[in-house]
């Protein structure tokens, strides 16, 4: 099937992107594409510097080059200690932050990123739709950072792409994507992480997938931007596997966006 072009800016379309490595504080010149199984990684700060890479990506769904990431863990999770105030107005939704046992990350940094994302006025609390509060006990949404293999087991790998997912209020964020991001967002790892959190929590809040609606405009946060920001590209990658929404093959291409209300 012919690969369709992905728009990476309003003025420039190109699916074949010269990528940027998402490097850590001590970035090697050429980090391996895939870590050794079971090797843990330390959480990369969202402000980490990036180094150039010569790789050209064939698809918007490719996992970018970058630092190592947790490839496997125990498959069980523990709560990251901490609670927070009520943010927003409207019906209250509580959430807990969890990390998979057996992977080594800066858990407080991960939890702080989730907190800041959900508390942002551009997030799901905008316009009085709902309020959120982080708790350490029972919660309506549990946001989990998982290893690559655990995420594949939970979210599926029928389409051979590393993705995150929500299942009954259990939000699984794929560690491979947390550390590497997605082609459409390169080199902005921070924005992609916001997208991960908001997209999957959006599913937990009852939101379904959406296509790019306005060519050149910001992608809806519920668009499957891990696959790309072009409707045609998403149709090509998903290959007829149901996505819970009709995605038209209409040539529309959006710009990357991680906020429900940008």
Relevant terms:
262 residues; 7-stranded mixed sheet; 16% strand; 9 strands; alpha/beta
Structure characterization notes:
The protein is an alpha/beta fold and 262 residues long. The protein has a domain at 77-208: Collagenase (Catalytic Domain). It is built from five helices and nine strands; from the N terminus they run E-E-E-E-E-H-E-E-H-E-E-H-H-H. Strands 3, 4, 5, 6, 7, 8 and 9 form a seven-stranded mixed beta sheet that branches.
CATH architecture descriptor text of the domain at 77-208: 3-Layer(aba) Sandwich
Major sheet description: 7 strands, mixed
Low-confidence stretches: 1-50
As for the CATH topology of the domain at 77-208, it is Collagenase (Catalytic Domain)
Q: How does the overall form come out from the CA principal axes?
A: globular
Task: Indicate the percent of residues in helices.
Answer: 10-25%
Give the averaged pLDDT, no decimals. Answer: 84
Global Rg:
17 Å
Briefly note the structural class of the backbone. alpha/beta
Note the gap between the termini.
34 Å
Q: How much of the residues is beta strand, in percent?
A: 15-25%
**CATH domain class of the domain at 77-208:** Alpha Beta
Order of helices and strands: EEEEEHEEHEEHHH
> What is the count of β-strands?
9
SS summary, helix count? 5
Question: What's the gist of this structure?
Answer:
The chain is an alpha/beta fold and 262 residues long.
Question: Mind sketching the topology for me?
Answer:
Layout lengths: L17 E4 L29 E6 L20 E3 L7 E2 L3 E9 L6 H13 L11 E4 L6 E6 L1 H8 L9 E3 L2 E5 H6 L8 H16 L26 H8 L24
Parallel strand pairs: 5-6, 5-7, 7-9
Antiparallel strand pairs: 1-2, 3-5, 4-6, 8-9
């Amino acid at each position: 099937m012919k690969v369709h072009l992905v728009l990476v800016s309003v003025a420039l379309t190109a699916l074949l992107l010269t990528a940027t490595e998402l490097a850590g504080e001590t970035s090697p010149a050429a980090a391996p594409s895939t870590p050794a199984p079971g090797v843990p990684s330390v959480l990369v700060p969202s402000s980490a510097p990036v180094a150039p890479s010569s790789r050209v990506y064939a698809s918007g769904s490719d996992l970018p080059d970058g630092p190592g990431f947790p490839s496997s863990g125990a498959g069980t999770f523990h709560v990251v200690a901490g609670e927070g105030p009520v943010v927003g107005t409207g019906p209250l939704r509580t959430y807990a932050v969890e990390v998979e046992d057996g992977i080594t990350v800066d858990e407080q940094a991960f939890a702080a990123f989730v907190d800041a994302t959900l508390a942002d006025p551009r997030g799901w609390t905008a316009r009085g739709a709902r309020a959120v509060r982080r708790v350490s006990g029972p919660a309506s949404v549990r946001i989990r950072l998982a290893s690559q293999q655990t995420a594949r087991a939970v979210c599926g790998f029928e389409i051979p792409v590393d993705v995150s997912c929500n299942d009954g209020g259990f939000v699984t964020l794929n560690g491979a994507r947390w550390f590497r991001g997605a082609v459409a967002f390169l080199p902005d790892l921070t924005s992609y992480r916001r997208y991960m959190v908001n997209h999957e929590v959006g599913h937990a809040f009852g939101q379904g997938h959406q296509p790019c609606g306005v060519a050149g405009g910001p992608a809806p946060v519920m668009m499957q931007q891990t696959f790309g920001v072009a409707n045609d590209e998403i149709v090509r990658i998903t290959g007829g596997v149901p996505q819970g929404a009709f995605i038209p093959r209409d040539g529309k291409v959006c710009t990357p966006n991680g906020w429900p209300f940008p």
